[in-house]
Every structure is written in C-alpha cells, then in structure tokens.
Write a structure and sequence with these properties.
Pfam family, one: Spin-Ssty
Protein name: Spindlin
Shape: globular
Order of helices and strands: EEEEEEHEEEEHEEEEE
CATH superfamily of the largest domain: Spindlin/Ssty
Family: Belongs to the SPIN/STSY family.
Structural class: mainly beta
CATH class of the largest domain: Mainly Beta
Number of helices: 2
Mean pLDDT: 86
Organism: Alosa alosa
Radius of gyration: 19 Å
Distance between the termini: 26 Å
Number of domains: 3
Number of strands: 15
Strand order of the largest sheet: 1-6-2-3-4-5
Length: 232
C-alpha cells in the first residue's frame, strides 16, 4: 500500500511560477508551494487543485505528486502554506476511458491489492466513491482500515487483476416516492477519540453514488475522512 506522506516528508526543488491572484479560481491549476512544519523548516509541494468546497470556499481539494490521498487545504488562508504559485493554468490531457463502465463502478465495494516492498501483496477492502474531478481517469476511493480519501487510476488495477468487485450482500434501500432525504452537508460533527478527547469536523460533501456516505474535514487534520454517517 502506498502510504500517505506527511508534508514534512516531501522535499524537492521547485521551478518559478506565477504569483496567485486571490480573486481567481485555482481549480484545474497546477500549483506549488512551501509547507512550514516548524520554524525554519519548509518543504516543497507540487500538485493539482481538483475542487473548491462549495460550503467552505477557502478549502480546496488537492492531489499532490507522489501522494495517493487527497488533501483538504485552505491554500489562501493557512499560514503554513508559503509562497503559493501557479505553475500552469492547464494540465495535460488524459486518455479517454469508458464512461459507462466507470459509472457502473461507483458505489461498489471492492478488494484492492497493493504490493509491498518485499513483493508480497495485501488486500484492502474499500469502496469506489466517485470519478475524480479534473483528473478524470482517476477515481476517489476509501478503505475500511484507513477511511480517508484516496485517488487511483482503477482501470489499470482492474485490468491487471489487482482490483475486484465484491458481490452486493443485499439490495440498497431506495427512498420511497416523494420521500425527502435530508443532506448532512454543512453540519458539524463530533468524533470521540479512542485515547480520549474529541475532534470537531465539517461535513463537506455527500457521495452521490452512496448518499449515506460523506466527506468530512476535521479542524486538526488536512486529510479528508470518509464515513457512512447513517450507519454511524
């Protein structure tokens, strides 16, 4: 499994870019910036801005190079972001994929194999959530033992046999005609830690293919967490 890196573990040279205009949207741009972990220690990061969160416009979803999960960063507000620049307003075009097959994958439970450094493979049970915005051959996915938002080109793993679908155990309950299903987007949630203490988070998005599942951004973390709030 390619583990998600922390900002302090990612370093590298950066090339000059354009200074960010705070009045223009960053969605679809390739960006680079420093990340201040501690006084005097700044690492360099480069990535693509996938989306701007509607209910919290200061929050952007970003896919960084060499990292498999999606981060939620207040790019223009977080003081740890240093010298934010736009490398390019355009990203490379991506190969076309089968849209019908892609739609059929959404909301499905899967077993996903990952290769370890010693060549052995582990299977992770997860759920395909949605097509990623901007980087359309990629899919959003999450896993039972690490419920954060990841992003992979799943067609490649499907073809190689490293991704397989799990048969549905029971039919998904559909709302009755005329029934209104309240969305939790915009609500604040409280999560109790096993070691004690609580975290406060904001529900930022509902998964269309699985309406009981939501994306949550906690105040003390830049990862996006994925939970079924109806089961919870």
């Amino acid at each position: 499994m390619k583990r998600k890196n922390s900002f302090k573990e990612h370093e590298g040279p950066a090339r000059p870019g354009a200074v960010v205009d705070p009045l223009k949207s960053l969605v679809g741009c390739q960006i680079q910036h420093g990340w201040r972990d501690a006084p005097g220690k700044i690492s360099r990061w480069k990535g693509i801005v996938l989306d701007q969160v509607t209910i919290l416009p200061s929050l952007y979803l970003v896919k960084y190079e060499n990292v498999d999960c999606v981060y939620g960063i207040e790019l223009l507000k977080d003081g740890r972001v240093q010298k934010l620049e736009i490398v390019s307003n355009r990203i490379d075009s991506y190969r076309a994929i089968d849209n019908k097959q892609a739609r059929s994958m959404l909301g499905r439970a899967v077993q996903h194999k990952f290769e370890n450094e010693d060549g052995s493979k582990d299977e992770w049970r997860g759920m395909v959530l949605a097509r990623a915005p901007i980087m359309t051959p990629w899919f959003f996915i999450t896993y039972e033992k690490d419920p954060v938002l990841y992003m992979y080109q799943l067609f490649d793993d499907l073809k190689s046999g490293d991704l397989r679908f799990i048969p549905e155990e029971s039919a998904q309950e559909e709302p009755e005609p005329g029934e209104v299903v309240d969305s939790l987007v915009g609500k604040h949630v409280e999560y109790s830690r096993e070691e004690g203490g609580k975290r406060i988070g904001l529900v930022i998005q509902q998964v269309e293919a699985k309406p009981s599942v939501y994306f949550i951004k906690f105040e003390d973390d830049f990862h996006i967490y994925v939970y079924d709030l109806i089961k919870a």
